[in-house]
Amino acid sequence: MQASPAAPPGASPNRSPMALYALTVGAFGIGTTEFVIMGLLLQLAGDLQVSVATAGLLISGYALGVFVGAPLLTAATSRVPRKTALLALMAIFTLGNIACALAPSYGVLMAARVITSLAHGTFFGVGTVVATSVVPADRKASAISTMFTGLTVATLLGVPAGAWLGLHHGWRSTFWAVSAIGVIAMAVIALFVSAKDAGSGSAVSLREEFKVLKRGHVLLGLAATVLGFAGVFVVFTFVQPLLTRVSGFSDAGVSAVLLVFGVGMIVGNIVGGRWADRAPVRALLGTLAVLAGVLVAMGFAMQSQVLAVLFIGLLGAAGFATVAPLQLRVLSKAEGAGQSMASSLNIAAFNLGNALGAWLGGAVIEHGPGLGALPWAAAVLTVGGLAVAWVSVRRDRRAAPAVPQAAAACA
Known about the structure:
Blueprint: H1 16-35, H2 41-48, H3 52-76, H4 82-102, H5 106-133, H6 140-169, H7 171-192, H8 195-198, H9 206-210, H10 216-236, H11 239-246, H12 251-278, H13 280-301, H14 305-321, H15 323-334, H16 339-367, H17 374-399, H18 405-410
Helix pairs in contact: 1-5, 1-6, 1-7, 2-3, 3-5, 3-16, 4-5, 4-7, 5-6, 5-16, 6-7, 6-12, 6-15, 10-15, 10-16, 10-17, 12-13, 12-14, 12-15, 13-14, 13-15, 13-17, 15-16, 16-17
Membrane topology: Multi-pass membrane protein
Main location: membrane
InterPro entries: MFS, MFS_dom, MFS_Efflux_Transporters, MFS_trans_sf
């Protein structure tokens, strides 16, 4: 039997893989509670006696809670050991979902959703730092993608399962189930995330933490995330009417097509992480360029049902291939004490991109050329993100010391 290779310095040979999987469980729960509401809107609206549009604001409220809560909660937990912070965040997540399950009114449910969302950005932000700290330097992007696999699996399995529970046992049962996932996540994090590997909190002041926002490359990275990923949600937010009214699918057929999107997300997430490990800059620019190309072609493809299925899968793959390179870019440019803050801010940036994409998609439908033009409008945003990333890379190259010709010839 072949011996296992020695673990790299700073990484635990036995606990590191399990630590990543423990973080993945937490990511699965958070991803489920974020997106499952899309499959519960009709039940919520009927039970709480509000319109479907008003029920839809529960999605916007969650996204805004992530955007606001990520930097604030990261600052509040900056001096706390990272394992303790992760456990506290999952406790907030679990209690928030219990409050959702017990909510007697729409207003209470909205407040509970916002409370739940506060844990989202900081969990992924701190979790990213922990994930990259328990693996060798050449596997940091893959570690990020492993953790984010929980989010993609949530879209593939957790959301349909939650919607099925809500349909057959009432929407409250879905939140009880997600609460149980939160308890399980707390248990596996407590068992498998080593306090030593996770690291201590930052010893610097909150003022020092926020100084990360003065770094031009961090700001460019955040802007690239907002614009680049917003393109995905221009289309995904309105994927049901796009498939039924443009591609001609039945309402029942949409669920099967969304499974293809979920599979694409998982594949893209893994590919993006491995590419970013080998060539982080090429992966950053390449994944955004591929996403823009998919969106442009998608505008022509949605008239055919066969091509629509193919491109929905490609959208999931191309969209989530960008996640690890974008997250790694911001993390690498933050350095030192500002990494947790920068990482959390980038999660907030993903959610701001979600909101921006949904807003632009609605504007295109109501005031622009309509549903069929959504992929092209999305491509414009993603090209904007690619341009910002390119500017950041160009700044890197200008700041780098000149490479001697002899050395360059040998490279």
